[in-house]
Design a protein that fits this description.
The protein is of the alpha/beta class. The protein has helices spanning 20-30, 58-71, 85-98, 120-130, 141-148, 156-168, 212-227, 230-246, and strands spanning 6-13, 34-46, 49-55, 76-79, 103-105, 136-137, 173-177, 188-192, 195-199.
C-alpha cells in the first residue's frame, strides 16, 4: 500500500474558516493528503474583513517547522501569509535546511476585503529569499506586478510575460491568475520548463470567493505531492476550486465574501 502523502501549510490563521490554514487543511483533506499547519499569524477576521493581526515570532515559526520535519515525512509545503521580513527569512532558512521536494508559494499580500497582510519590507524578503526556493509561485495579477516591480498585466500576453519574468527570478514555475482581468472568463497561465500553458476558467458570479487563492495553492501543493507534475497539478487543482466555488451557495457562512465549499464532493 502506498502511504498517504503529507503536506504542510505555513500560513496565517482565519478564525472564520474560509482562508488561511483552515482553508489549507480543508483543501488538503479534500484532495486526498494528510494536512499539517505551522501558524505565522493570528488574525481577527470574518467574511467582511480583517480587524486585527497578532504575529508569531520568527523564532517560534522556526521551532514549529523544525518540530514537523524532525518527526514527519513532508511531501510538499505550501507557504501563505508570511507578514514580515523576519518571518520570511525564518521560513526560507528552514526550507534550505530541510529541502522539501515541493514548495508552493502563495504571495498573500492583500485580503479579499482590501486589508494589507504583507509589510513593505517583507516583499523584498519574499522576492529574494522565498521565491528562489519555490517549486511554483501562484500570484494574482497585482501580486505579480508587486513582485516584479512592474505595471499590472492588462491582457493575456502581458500575463504570460509576467509569468516568464517570475521564473527568471528563480522559481521553478509561475502560475499567474487572471481573475483581475476585465473579461467574461478568468484565464490563468503557467510558465514552467520554458513553455506557457493556459487554463481557461469560467467566471462564476458570486460573492463567495473568500480564500480562493489559499485553496487553489493548497490544492496544487497536494497534487504536486501526489503527481510531481506541475501542469497536471494545476489542472486538477483548478477543477477542484471551480467546483468548490460553484457549490458555495450550499453554505450559509457570513454576510460578506463567503467561503468556497471545500467538501462539495463529499457533503
Amino acid at each position: 500500500m502506498t502511504a498517504i502523502r503529507n503536506v504542510l501549510s505555513i500560513a496565517g490563521s482565519d478564525p472564520s474558516g474560509g482562508a488561511g490554514i483552515q482553508a489549507d487543511l480543508k483543501a488538503f483533506s479534500a484532495n486526498g493528503v494528510y494536512g499539517m499547519a505551522v501558524v505565522t499569524a493570528l488574525t481577527a477576521q470574518n467574511t467582511q474583513g480583517v480587524s486585527g493581526v497578532e504575529l508569531v515570532s520568527p523564532d517560534f515559526v522556526t521551532r514549529q517547522i523544525d518540530a514537523i520535519f524532525a518527526d514527519i515525512r513532508v511531501d510538499a509545503v505550501k507557504i501563505g501569509m508570511v507578514a514580515t521580513a523576519g518571518i520570511a527569512a525564518a521560513i526560507a532558512a528552514a526550507m534550505r535546511r530541510h529541502r522539501p521536494a515541493h514548495v508552493v508559494l502563495d504571495p498573500v499580500m492583500i485580503a479579499k476585503g482590501g486589508d494589507r497582510l504583507l509589510a513593505e519590507e517583507a516583499v523584498v524578503a519574499m522576492r529574494s529569499e522565498l521565491l528562489p526556493l519555490a517549486t511554483m509561485i501562484t500570484p494574482n495579477i497585482p501580486e505579480a506586478a508587486v513582485l516584479l516591480g512592474a505595471a499590472e498585466a492588462a491582457d493575456s500576453g502581458q500575463m504570460e510575460e509576467a509569468a516568464r519574468a517570475l521564473t527568471a527570478l528563480g522559481c521553478g514555475a509561475a502560475l499567474v491568475k487572471g481573475g483581475h482581468l476585465p473579461a467574461a472568463d478568468s484565464p490563468d497561465v503557467l510558465f514552467a520548463a520554458g513553455r506557457a500553458t493556459w487554463f481557461e476558467g469560467r467566471r462564476v458570479e458570486t460573492r463567495n470567493t473568500h480564500g480562493t487563492g489559499c485553496t487553489l495553492s493548497s490544492a496544487i501543493a497536494a497534487q504536486l505531492a501526489l503527481t510531481s507534475d506541475p501542469v497536471e497539478s494545476v489542472r486538477r487543482a483548478k477543477a477542484y476550486v471551480a467546483e468548490a466555488i460553484a457549490a458555495s451557495g450550499r453554505l450559509g457562512v457570513g454576510s460578506g465574501h463567503g467561503p468556497t465549499h471545500h467538501f462539495h464532493a463529499h457533503w
